[in-house]
Design a protein that fits this description.
It is built from twelve helices and nine strands. The protein has 256 residues and is α/β, with parallel strands linked by helices. The protein is elongated. The termini are close together. Bound molecules: adenosine-5-diphosphoribose.
């Protein structure tokens, strides 16, 4: 867990920021019981992303692609947001955060009360048809083993409404609007390795801004430098972010 002084520094950076935005990744949902992708025990240990998580795989072998989608979907069943998501919602409501850009497909930020959320990689609680454009809810029945579900309108195989490798990310225009004038990016629970999300902190730094990083430990981004006054708050997001929000909102004695 980051020290009291480090939390204080992070809170000062957030208070001073003209415009702060959060970028989140799978690590922020680990304390909800959802494994991330690249840590030991992560989904990519079992499912090679280049084999299972590509558009090519879905188009050619939807049954095989569904092995991975079902494994991912099962990790979300019965799970919900944790104190890290709640802290970001609190910071937004307090006017300290303009919004959240997330790579996550679990919907936990909205469940926690964040309003301005850009889901760059889509949402796993929905299905989509690439042929006719139908989008609808993903029910528990499609997570049972069996053939790929098919579109009730056109018969084409359905996929979860998430972004596969070889597909364009979603909401880039809204992300750009959020980042306009952003001088502090709060980067939480991401290895910051997958473009284009990984470019965002680098862009903020290149424009003279800083990154406040919340992660279990240093990442490539940390090693590259986090900009003037930027720092890594090492530890679990579910502890660090509530402590940070408490400090920013003047409730430091309660939680830090
Ligand atoms: N608190 C803070 N950070 C954590 C925690 C935690 N409790 N648990 C794990 N982490 C950190 C890990 O140390 C790692 O740096 O979160 C990061 C998770 O990294 P990845 O597994 O690479 O997840 P992410 O960055 O979201 O991946 C980006 O890759 O394959 C794609 O589409 C997938 O959206 C995903 C994208």
């Amino acid at each position: 867990m980051a020290s009291r002084e480090e939390i204080q520094k992070g809170a000062d950076a957030l208070r001073r920021a003209r415009r702060a935005v959060a970028l989140t990744g799978a690590g922020i949902s680990v304390e909800s019981g959802v494994p991330d992708f690249r840590s030991p025990g992560g989904l990519w240990e079992v499912y090679d992303p280049g084999t299972y998580a590509t558009l090519f795989c879905f188009l050619r072998e939807p049954e095989r692609a569904w092995e991975f989608y079902r494994a991912l979907g099962r990790t979300l069943v019965g799970k919900t947001f944790n104190p890290a998501h709640a802290a970001l919602a609190e910071l937004e409501q307090a006017g300290r955060l303009a919004g959240v850009i997330t790579q996550n497909v679990d919907g936990f930020h909205q469940a926690a009360g964040s309003r301005n959320v850009v889901e760059m990689h889509g949402n796993h609680h929905q299905l989509q048809c690439l042929s006719c454009g139908w989008v609808g809810p993903l029910g528990p029945e499609v997570l049972e083993p069996g053939p790929a579900p098919r579109c009730g309108d056109c018969g084409h195989p359905l996929k979860p409404n998430v972004v596969l490798f070889q597909e364009d990310v979603r909401g880039m225009d809204r992300a750009e609007d959020l980042l306009e004038g952003c001088d502090l990016l709060l980067v939480a629970g991401t290895s910051a390795q997958v473009a284009p999300a990984a470019w965002l902190p680098r862009r903020v730094i290149a424009a003279g801004g800083s990154v406040l990083e919340v992660n279990l430990g240093p990442t490539d981004l940390t090693a590259e430098g986090l900009g003037p006054g930027g720092l890594l708050l090492a530890g679990q997001a579910g502890e660090t972010l509530p402590a940070l929000a408490a400090q920013v909102n003047g409730r430091a004695q309660e939680q830090v």
